[in-house]
Amino acid sequence: MAVPERQILVCQSFRAGGDPKGICHKQTDGFLQYIEEEILDRGLDMQVVATGCLKQCEAGPIMVIQPDNLWFKGIDSEEAIDAVLDGLEDGEPAAEYLIS
How confident is the model at residue 90 (pLDDT cuts 50, 70, 90)? Predict the structure, then answer.
């Protein structure tokens, strides 16, 4: 099995007790499936990973691209996901969502 070129980490707000408590999981229902379908449609070598809380609640929902260490905020729509993926394909991160 080949190691993917990148991983997309999507905050799902899970905390130590296992309960989702932040806003990320509330605003990303169905996003994991959408991201997976988009990376397949685009032929990108990426893996989607649901994470525990990424501790950026004030900027959520959060998506992180590794190994680039690009952190994106406010990923609350398919349009935002598309902008991030478009930016990755073009080699220019989507500045409007980038946490600097």
Answer: very high
Would you state the pLDDT for residue 2?
Answer: 84
Measured CA to CA, the distance from residue 99 to residue 17 in angstroms comes to: 28
CB of 82 closer than 8 Å to CB of 34 = no
**What is the distance, to the nearest Å, from the Cα of residue 88 to the centroid of all Cα atoms in its chain?**
12
Count, residues in the chain: 100
Q: Which two tokens stand for residue 41?
A: 């449609």
Specify the DSSP class assigned to residue 95: T
DSSP state of 20: B
Q: What is the pLDDT of residues 19-58, one digit of tens each?
A: 556 666 556 667 889 999 999 999 999 999 988 888 888 8
All structural domains of the chain, each given as residue ranges with its CATH number in brackets, are 6-90 (3.40.30.10)
Contact between 60 and 99 under an 8 Å Cβ cutoff? The reply is no
- Judge contact between 23 and 17, C-beta under 8 A: no
